[in-house]
Every structure is written in structure tokens, then in C-alpha cells.
Amino acid sequence: MSEISRMDLFNEVEITGQVGRDPEIGAFQDGRRYAEFTVIIRFSYYNDKDELVEQQLRQHVVFWQKKLVGVIERRVSKGMAISISGRLSPRSFLDAAGEKQFRTMIVGKRLKIL
After folding, report:
1. What's the chain's average pLDDT?
2. Residues near 11 by beta carbon (within 8 Å), at least 6 away in sequence
3. 36: closest CA among 64, 61, 15?
């Protein structure tokens, strides 16, 4: 097994949650399309005072595979329960104020509508 393929084994993530916003379908200059949306992940735990603490995270997700982009476009909408597996990918961009921002996205490989 090559060094690169071994490293890929360590960058695998799976999440289950609710679609936080309707997918945005876009296209690259070469015509390939993508689907981008957020997934809300809710979880809870008990703190050291034995109080229930509920939290949620918003995870940004992007799919590039032609077939999955079509499925997402036709069948995925805000509020749906889904499960996604893919890899983590760091991104940086300039916000409206010109400040550099960082975001870790999931580049999706598999999608399951629950």
C-alpha cells in the first residue's frame, strides 16, 4: 500500500443529522456541478453538575459526484434526516469585510436519506 493511500484511510468521517438549509446547486467553469449545504448535528451530555447540556453543530458539506448531485437536487431539502460519509477538507476564503476565514468542510462520498 502506498504512503498516500494509507494516509487517506485516516481521513474518513461519517455524520448523521438534519439538512440545515436547502442545497445550493452550482457549477464549475468546466461545467461540472456541485451540491453544497449544511447538516445540523445535535448532541447532549451531562456536565459535572449533572445537568443536561444540549448542543448543536452546523457542518458544511459539498458533493461533486454527478449522480449524487442530481439526487441531492431532486430529493434533499431543509429539515430532512440524512447520513453522510466523506472526508474532511479545510478551506479558506475572504468574507465580505475582506477578513480571511477558515472552514472545515466534508467532501461527501456517500449519502443516505433516512
Report:
1. 91
2. 87, 88
3. 61
Q: What is the rounded distance in angstroms from the CA atom of residue 86 to the CA atom of residue 36?
A: 13
DSSP state letters, 58-104: EEEEEE--HHHHHHHHHH--TT-EEEEEEEEEEEEEE-TTS-EEEEE
pLDDT in tens, 35-62: 999 999 999 999 999 999 999 999 999 9
Q: Which of 19, 56, 13, 23 is nearest to 39 (CA)?
A: 19
Could you tell me the residue ranges of all domains in the chain?
3-113
pTM beyond 0.85, yes or no: no
From the CB of residue 65, how many other CB atoms can be counted at a distance below 10 Å?
18
Report which residue type is found at 110: R
CA 73 distance to own-chain centroid: 15
Query: Please, which pLDDT band fits residue 110 given cuts at 50, 70 and 90?
Result: very high
Per the listing, cell 472552514 goes with: 103
Q: Which CATH superfamily is domain 3-113 in?
A: Nucleic acid-binding proteins (2.40.50.140)
